[in-house]
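Re-running Signal recognition particle protein to confirm reproducibility after the cluster update. Everything else is unchanged from the original entry.
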Amino acid sequence: MAFESLSDKLQNIFKNLRSKGRLTEADVKASLKEVKMALLEADVSFKVVKQFMKAVQERAVGQDVLNGLNPGQMVIKIVNEEMVNLMGAETTEIALQPASEITVLMMMGLQGAGKTTTTAKIAGKLKSKGRKPLLVACDIYRPAAIQQLQINGDKQGVEVFSMGDKNKPVNIAKAAIEHASKNGHNVVILDTAGRLHVDEDMMNELIEIKENVTVNQSLLVVDAMTGQDAVNVATMFDEKIGIDGVILTKLDGDTRGGAALSIRAVTGKPILYIGMGEKLSDLEQFYPDRMASRILG
Ligand code: GDP
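Result of re-run:
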């Protein structure tokens, strides 16, 4: 299960805090030091941990807290609130154009992150909201990717637009938008190619799409299991392409928590959805407060 080790550690630290009636400044500082270690071990980025601990410390080591009725409980509450803030405080939705217009979503991510699966999951979500999505196979390098999108699109009852692997992705995108406008689709979801590493060719292809097509939202899919690598990938995509939001996959797995806690703070971009399994229904809206509760146990 996700965050198990981080949750266990935090719960132990908090249990100790709660068990003490009165707290001294030294008690609180010692506990916060343990929180810091637990976050670092969970692969939260060092800069984020520093920033987080500063915010918590400023609020938790004052006389207000120490002389209060239940200082241990107060410290825990502060950690919880700052954790929610770290992840963006509010829930962010994918920004869609009015239903009378076409919204173009460009899905991006490294191979294996879960991009194609997530693309179909999102199509299903939008369909259930009354939109008429069109899935577009822009990954021309992996024949299996086109097939996989087709299978998932069929499962979701969503049309898939494909031109095989002989056309440039930018031209497939253009043709798809034309097809969408002729056939009453109001969301076009481009499934772009994933590569093993962030490379120049991949970035150029995405830039070319963005320069020639009105992309309303560029969404990055990253694998939570990869921890800080996921954060680095997000930073790189944001610098080179510009991203509007992140979808964090595989949170059902044994992930340590680093990516979930760092991405917003490092990139300034919100987590929109979380992937919770391989099934096409396993996609959840991201709620920072619920995620903090999950981590804090
Ligand atoms: P792509 O290469 O980025 O398009 O990745 P795929 O969509 O093909 O997904 C790669 C693997 O990850 C597949 O086996 C998916 O079933 C799996 N996967 C995707 N999202 C999730 C998730 O949220 N949880 C789990 N457990 N597996 C996922």
